[in-house]
Amino acid sequence: MQLRMTNQREIILQELQKSGKHLTADELYDRVKKSMPRISLATVYRNLETLSKTGVIAKLEISGRQRRFDYDASEHDHIYCVQCHKVDNVELDREVIGYSSTISAQGYKITGYRLELVGICPVCRKNNQKRGE
Amino acid sequence: MQLRMTNQREIILQELQKSGKHLTADELYDRVKKSMPRISLATVYRNLETLSKTGVIAKLEISGRQRRFDYDASEHDHIYCVQCHKVDNVELDREVIGYSSTISAQGYKITGYRLELVGICPVCRKNNQKRGE
DNA sequence: CTTAGTGCAAACTGTTTGCAGAGGG
DNA sequence: CCCTCTGCAAACAGTTTGCACTAAG
After folding, report:
1. Measured CA distances, B4 to B8, B25, B81 (Å)
2. Left if phi > 0, otherwise alpha if psi is -120 to 50, otherwise beta: which for B72?
3. Closest C-alpha to B12, from B56, B49, B44
4. What is the pLDDT of residue A43?
5. Which residue among B11, B19, B37, B116 has its CA within the 20 to 30 Å range from the CA of B69?
6. For B30-80, what is each residue's pLDDT tens digit?
7. What's the Å distance between residue B20 CA and nucleotide C21 C1'?
8. What is the C-alpha separation between A25 and A131, in angstroms, rounded?
């Protein structure tokens, strides 16, 4: 199966990349609709699926009910704001999770891990301070 | 609001605990139905919600489309089998994730983290070997 | 031309909710 | 008795899919 670079696919990818955020399908849909009003949400879903399968973007397993997509497909971790549900990238030393000894005891073959930091983002912290929390 | 220990709630809790697994609402529903056939899935959801809010069990943010519930409410991490989608508990040194320096640079206040190891469980590994993979 | 991709609507999955009635304390 | 909890059905949110048509290469 070979890929075609359709107009839709191109704009979806561009919008995700230029957002610099970890958008959900419908957040991206809203953005893309501005330059392509007749695009359908299904197309956005299909393209996000395709683009993540080919490794151009990454599909995130992250907190919250909606799936999010990352313009950056390289390995890195995420931090999640419990207040505004925003997600940011975090660069951590991935070697630190070299627990193989502990883990192999349980008989698992470790292939990777997902680390999600949880906290409150700068914007929310500032807002909280204003309200004296 | 005070809690009542209804028959349903008791059986739901017992079944989750005696399973020793990280069940989804409908897996638990199937088990509970055996001793209480007229129970409804909504009741299972409502009780899992209540029990996790009161800290008796834990609601997991984990890979996969379905939410899972943990009979063990204490802080610990999980390991996820990519083949059979089973989840197990893992005890790791939680202090290792003391990255505050790196992270606070981004202005986040870290309140916790979720670490999910990903791999292949003993059972699946054995099955793979049989098939010569 | 060929066949991957699209828009639309309808289906599907997991979860939540309104309501009238049941039962725990 | 009160009020939390239940069963049921219907609603909901997010995602996927079947189909006939469009357009990329």
Report:
1. 10, 20, 36
2. beta
3. B44
4. 98
5. B37
6. 999 999 999 999 999 999 999 999 999 999 988 888 999 999 999 888 998
7. 35
8. 33
Alpha carbon distance A108, B88 (integer Å): 10
Q: What is the token pair recorded at B41?
A: 């899935």
CA distance B53 to chain A (A): 16
Q: How far is CA A127 from the centre of its chain?
A: 25
Give CA–CA dist A11/A4, Å, rounded: 13
* Continuous segment of H or E residues that includes residue A17: helix A7-19
What DSSP string runs through A55-94? Answer: TSSEEE--SSSS-EEES--SS-EEEEETTT--EEEE---G
Cβ atoms within 10 Å, residue A74 = 8
Residue B42 touches chain A, beta carbons under 8 Å = no
Task: Break chain B down into helix, strand, coil percent, rounded to 5.
Answer: 40, 25, 35
Each residue of A94-126: pLDDT tens digit?
A: 655 555 445 555 788 888 888 888 888 899 999
Residues 41-80 of B with CB under 7 A from strand D: 42-43, 46-47, 50
Which DSSP helix (H) or strand (E) runs through B130? Answer: helix B122-130
A6: the nucleotide nearest its CA (via C1') is D24
Q: Report d(CA A63, CA A60) in Å as an integer.
A: 9
Rounded Cα distance, A113 and B96, in Å: 15
Measured CA to CA, the distance from residue B133 to residue B126 in angstroms comes to 10
From the CA of A5, how many Å to the nearest CA of chain B? 29
